[in-house]
Predict the 3D structure of the following.
Amino acid sequence: MTKRTKFNAIHSGRFFIAIALLCIVNLAMPGCKTSGSILKKDGSEDFDAFYDQFHKDDKFQLSRIQFPLDGYKNDPDGREKWSRSNWVTMKVKIYDIDQSQYKVTYNKKDDTFYQKVWIDGSGFMSEYRFNKIKGKWYLTYARDENF
């Protein structure tokens, strides 16, 4: 093997490693960017960015619920406290609920967010409360009624 061939082989290997590392970093970056993007300049979380991430990412959602969660679900099978095993992932933000079919109310303050969705006279109602705890947002209460 000549010096030139050996030089090219070494640099080709380094190039391959550099490309592989770049791909790995690129795959890791969306998670880092997302978690960083929910922070405000003072280090606390922006609610709207948190709320968006909460509804997009199942794992993130579960990380922001401390079980057993206050509240309950109530359906024809009975009333049950929320646990990690019976939690139903929230996918639809309150802003995206079809208001021609459902009644919707929500209230946003600096350290709390309350939302309620229901259909008059149907036996369906759900309400959720989010609270900011030590600068981070958490779901702290959930109640679902469905009869």
The chain is about 35% helix and 35% strand. The radius of gyration is 23 Å.
